[in-house]
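Reader question, answered in our methods column.
A reader sent in the components of a multi-part assembly and asked whether the whole thing could be modeled at once rather than chain by chain. We filled in our standard form and ran it. Here is what they sent:
COMPLEX SIZE: two components
ENTRIES:
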Amino acid sequence: MVHVVLWGALKSASGGKDAVDVEARDIRELFRKLEAEYPGMKPHIDRGIAVSINGTIYRDTWSQTIPPDTEIYLLPRIAGG
Amino acid sequence: MPLDTSYTGQKFKLVGTRPLRPDGIDKVTGRAKYGADAFAPGQLVGRVLRSPHAHAKIKKIDTSKAEKLAGVKAVITSADLPDYTNGDRGMFDILENCMARDKVFYDGHAVAAVAAIDADTARKALKLIKVDYEILPHVTDVDEAIKPKAPILHDDIFTEGVEPKPKKPSNIAKRTEFGHGDVEQGFKEADIVIEKTFKTEQTHQGYIEPHACLANVGPDGQGEMWVTTQGHFVYRNQCAQLLGMDISKLRVTASEIGGGFGGKTHIWAEPLALALSRKANRPVKLVMSREEVFRASGPTSSTSIDVKIGARKDGTITAATATLRYASGPFYGMWAELGAMTSFACYDLKNVKSVGYEVLVNRPKVAAYRAPSAPMAAFAVESVIDEIAKKIGMDPVEFRIKNAAKEGTKSSYGPVYGPIGIGPTLEAAKNHPHMKAPLKKNQGRGMACGFWFNFGGQTCTSININPDGTAVVAVGTIDVGGSRASMSLMAAEELGIPYENVRCVVADTSSLGHNDMSDGSRVTFSSGMATVIAARNAIKVLCQRAAKMWDIPEDAVVWEDGCAKPAGANAGTFPPLTLKEIAAAAANTGGPIAGHNEFVADGAGVSFATHICDVEVDPETGATKILRYTVIQDAGKAIHPSYVEGQYQGGAAQGIGWALNEEYIYGKDGRLQNPGFLDYRIPVCSDLPFIDTVILEIPNPNHPYGVRGVGETSIVPPLAAIANAVSNAVGVRMTHIPMSPPRILKAIEGGPA
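And here is the structure of the entire assembly that came back:
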């Protein structure tokens, strides 16, 4: 089980929760399950969500594996100059 | 499986040296081709008609007289740009920003465009276009825009991120929040609490080269564009979508770039040039004037920020909060969100909360500007950090060292840090001679820290080995700061050939797979990584060819010092084959030799910097002179140290302009009052001291050479470092950027600063 910590703007999409638990082996599965359980997250996922796993931020590598029992963080997909 | 790109501690022969950049001679002799230098036979001149109103309904546009003018070949309005965005609000905002549809949202918003045989005719044609406006009330100030009676820009935008969903539309497009712990409890544990409000004015990236492109769309629907951009693949994709074209039918070639800093990550007039060309069936060159660049490209946000920090007398921060209101222009942005994420990222905090509000105003659509949103947040936070240190009686560097984030710290925006450089940059600042240099009357010293994320992204690179043993590296990322030199160094390092034997070019969009833009400090990190992997793939082919030439198994060949060598018990005792010899024999061993790589680079590694600044303030005029400036920043590994130093110095120079002079000034009529370099004053050489740099190298574990991005972080600390220096010089806390002479005089005289 992965403990997924949400940032503020996602709370309204998850019914006010700060964090949710999801069974997922990689980022792709994580997004698929989040979207199924919390349809309000779809526009955020479409707009772009980055995932922090053990301190490394992944913006695009949806095949990135998530170790079991990890606490991960969802973040906005950052823009740069 | 994702590619293993871990740091290996490899020893280098070329990486870390300082050869000349391959584009240097072209740039200093005027031979380099920029956006406006493109030419095509029969080309027309494109010009854009822009709104003089900050907010108005477009009731009617009559282009009939312009169309009848001799020499006019095409006139377009939004009717020529139908909506192909399929419900994608972000793309629709881009479309609407490129050409107003039902409403204009700012002074300078495009309403029509013409293509004519020369500039005179185009200008005359613009004057013949009649636009019937219904003027609406406007708002340009970030704090005014969120007041209950402020004019609402969009009646279909309801504040996102709040529960329950609001029933009334609002100029606050989104609320966002980051943090952890219990800030109320943290403030109760504090001996000292300081709370202040800060403002920063809107600034422009100030790139010297205006936006320019040459568009050519034929009757067969195929098109080409030559353009100044930070990302020609993204320009191609977005322009193709807005024009309803297949991506394969639009080929985009990037020119040299005369500065971008985030402002050229966005399309502005390029779709208009393509639409004009398609309608006129002729090439159209469209070059923005400086006034248009100011009024109608993408400056940074103006902001209003509240910061509250509590600390114990021993110097431990117990709680910190920030409320950040960032103007995003008339369209949804993520600028306050980035400010909220970065505001406290330098510190190890038990209780922290930052809340961001994206605010819609009648100003141009905000675009990224080098570490977007972080400098303003750092200005507010680092100013209060200095105030607290002063009140406690602690040295500001020691106070920051005591509270600095480190490996294992839970960052204020969530994730736990790996190895990071904030502590080492602060230690280096503490021990730098600059900190001990004496100061005279009316002089002050300030220092500040800064943070930026950095990122990677989609990247595709090819290396072709030529018959004479030289190599060409084709990258898809624009060279904004010497990256062709860095790519050449990395390719030469891997292949084992001299730097001079490698030429790096930026390929057009038909030659490589999609590449993300040159933003997020990503180029040396991600294109560099792709270049290293492509070189290693080329080496595999070179070894295969050597095996054929020796008639031994492929796995009996190794690559060392630019040569294939036999290895293993049954490999034989052949003398080494150089890359040149293998390349010369390529025709008879299988044909051309190349290495290729396409991947998504993630794990860019966060970046920190500490800046020190000395100023002298003239108490009679309020004018500030920067006396000395030092940048200390972690680069992970400096591939080409001169260009790393150049990034550090460039960020500091832009930050100095932002801190002291630069400011969008709007009149009560909502019109920009200073759209030119005479009245919008960027720093020139005589305003700047030599900017000293210190490169720290704390390897990024996610890059084979340890590289971290360096392009953006250097603009984060200057506003704060200079504000702290000026505040120390005049004895009053400065809370409004830019600290122009009138604001400083007002502060000295006791008025609000």
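What stands out: Chain B touches chain A through 51 residues (CB under 8 Å). The mean pLDDT of chain B is 96.
Send us your own complexes using the same form.
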